[in-house]
Amino acid sequence: MTIRLIMLGKTRREEMRALIEDYARRIRRYAELEIHELRDGSPAALRKMKIAPGAAIVLLDAAGKQFTSQQFARWLGDLRDRGTREMVFLCGGAEGFPDELRASAKHKISLSTLTMPHEFARVVLAEQIYRAFAILAGHPYPK
């Protein structure tokens, strides 16, 4: 399975970039991972990303479905086990997403009911993806 994190805007804070990279290294033990930072979420910019037709596109949205870590791991594992070869997580910038992008996403998830800075949300997303794979592998990290 390939995981792609597509983030609108740059992660400017060095400590946030370092945390994302740490979790990226951990995720790569379980899956191929690509991280992309785009200036905007326009359809043209996303077309350049060449997202596979069967990819599971997951948009982070405050109104999206909420999971516990165990539920998120099961959901990710179910998609993987049903043959999903690519998962694309779209993480917005400070201004969120263009409306057409929000409307086109098949899956919408929320990391929390709390409001958090978009750079911190990226760290939380990376950590939860790693945690999900660790849970699926029976690794002691999630305990």
Structure description:
The chain is of the alpha/beta class and 143 residues long. The protein has one domain (2-137): SPOUT methyltransferase, trefoil knot domain (Alpha/beta knot, 3-Layer(aba) Sandwich), CATH 3.40.1280.10. It has helices at 14-27, 43-47, 69-81, 99-104, 118-137; strands at residues 2-8, 32-38, 56-66, 86-91, 107-110. Helix 3 links the parallel strand 3 and strand 4 (86-91).
Order of helices and strands: EHEHEHEHEH
Can you count the beta strands?
5
Number of domain units: 1
What would CATH call the architecture? 3-Layer(aba) Sandwich
The whole-number mean of residue pLDDT values reads 91
Radius of gyration: 14 Å
CATH class: Alpha Beta
Global structural class: alpha/beta
Span between N and C termini? 25 Å
Low-pLDDT stretches are none
Major pleated sheet: 5 strands, parallel
Number of helices: 5
* Secondary structure: helix percent: 40-55%
In order across it, which strands form the biggest sheet?
Answer: 2-1-4-3-5
- CATH superfamily, by name, is SPOUT methyltransferase, trefoil knot domain
**What would the principal axes of the Cα set say about the shape?**
globular
